[in-house]
Amino acid sequence: MVTELKADILHEVIQKRPVTTNKTNFGNILLIGGNEQFGGAILMAASAAVSSGAGLVTVATHNTNITPLHIRNPEAMALDWDNHGTVLEQVRKSSVVLIGPGLGNSEDAIELLRSTMRAMRENQTLILDASALGIIADKHVMIPTNVFTIATPHQGEWAQLSSVMIPYQDSMELNDLQRKTLNIDVLVLKKHHTVILSENRQMELLLGGPYQATGGMGDTLAGLIAGFVGQFAEPRRATEAAVYAHSAIAQELAEHNWVVRPSFIADFVPNYMARINTNLPEVD
Ligand SMILES: NC(=O)C1=CN([C@@H]2O[C@H](COP(=O)(O)OP(=O)(O)OC[C@H]3O[C@@H](n4cnc5c(N)ncnc54)[C@H](O)[C@@H]3O)[C@@H](O)[C@H]2O)[C@@H](O)CC1
Ligand SMILES: Nc1ncnc2c1ncn2[C@@H]1O[C@H](COP(=O)(O)OP(=O)(O)O)[C@@H](O)[C@H]1O
Ligand SMILES: [Mg+2]
């Protein structure tokens, strides 16, 4: 049975930070993507991850994207993805790895995806988006069973990955069967009224609208999920909260904006989260 995803998820997931805490308690996030053509995709994911409060954010990308990344987000660290050894070292150190936004499908991109998947271990979370999903479908790459995996396809990507064609994607039974077959722990099937499927849990988002139909909207969501999973307990609930917040913010911004630029969402995240659970010390 599909249940409506409601605002309660935010209060459940977004927890006030203990005063004595430090950056190592909020996730060591690695974002891999952004070739020469699609640098913006990984930059938008990075903005969302940084804005969500992730403890440490590192971006492995094509070297042309590193200066733009630092101009937009000096908080993020950067690696040239041609240095495979250094990238894999960072994969091993990370709590959450997002791969796919703007990754492309070159031979190098395929090899980077394969080696990233091989390097990951039980206590880490892997988020697969965009080009990573296309490569998995095209090259029949197996998703590792020993890593907690979240996949965030739009309907076109899900059709390619699961062979469930778009008109049949209303069937949660079919989607969930394919989710399990593909070794995906949490499936975020993105559309108008996104659904989130995981073991014994099916949630549907009833927020959001066509003002979100613009390039980069999914890249921003992927970065937000990475940031939430890195800093809040329980990756399924953290994913659901990120999906809810992303569209709730878009809906709020759409009251005064014809379309909602994905970067505006990232900029608005800290303010939105503070309204859920403020980090200000309590007053006696
Ligand atoms: N500024 C940037 O650098 C951007 C880069 N992007 C990157 O571009 C690469 C290709 O991603 P795309 O998703 O554009 O293209 P793809 O070509 O992978 O997928 C789009 C295909 O799926 C079909 N489709 C069916 N349902 C769809 C739906 N609900 N939403 C979108 N397409 C649907 C389309 O007709 C099209 O054939 C990815 O790596 C992505 O991250 C995009 O995210 C856009 C912004
Ligand atoms: N008409 C719509 N109603 C609600 N949400 C939408 C609509 N169109 C797009 N979205 C949302 O925008 C995002 C688009 O993701 P995606 O297609 O991966 O974008 P991109 O790859 O360009 O970043 C998803 O979260 C999707 O649910
Ligand atoms: Mg996308």
Q: How would the blueprint of this fold be written?
A:
Blueprint lengths: L2 E3 L2 H6 L14 E5 L6 H13 L4 E6 L4 H7 L4 E4 L3 H10 L2 E4 L7 H13 L5 E4 L1 H10 L8 E4 L3 H8 L9 H10 L4 E4 L5 E4 L2 E5 L11 H15 L3 H19 L8 H15 L8
Parallel strand pairs: 1-10, 2-3, 2-5, 3-4, 5-6, 6-7, 7-8
Antiparallel strand pairs: 8-9, 9-10
Helix pairs in contact: 2-9, 2-11, 4-5, 6-7, 9-10, 9-11, 10-11
Bound molecules: ligand NAX, adenosine-5'-diphosphate (ADP) and magnesium ion.
Adenosine-5'-diphosphate binds next to helix 9.
GO molecular function, one term: NAD(P)HX epimerase activity
Family: Belongs to the NnrD/CARKD family.
Catalytic activity: (6S)-NADHX + ADP = AMP + phosphate + NADH + H(+); (6S)-NADPHX + ADP = AMP + phosphate + NADPH + H(+)
Please give the CATH architecture: 3-Layer(aba) Sandwich
- Overall tally of domains: 1
Radius of gyration: 18 Å
Provide the succession of SSEs.
EHEHEHEHEHEHEHHEEEHHH
Span between N and C termini? 45 Å
Please provide the count of β strands. 10
CATH topology: UDP-N-acetylmuramoyl-L-alanine:D-glutamate ligase
Mean pLDDT: 97
Sequence stretches where pLDDT stays below 50 over 5 or more residues:
none
Question: What is the overall number of helices?
Answer: 11
CATH class: Alpha Beta
Protein name: ADP-dependent (S)-NAD(P)H-hydrate dehydratase
GO molecular function, one term: NAD(P)HX epimerase activity
Binding site for (6S)-NADPHX: 41, 102, 154, 219
Binding site for AMP: 190-194, 218
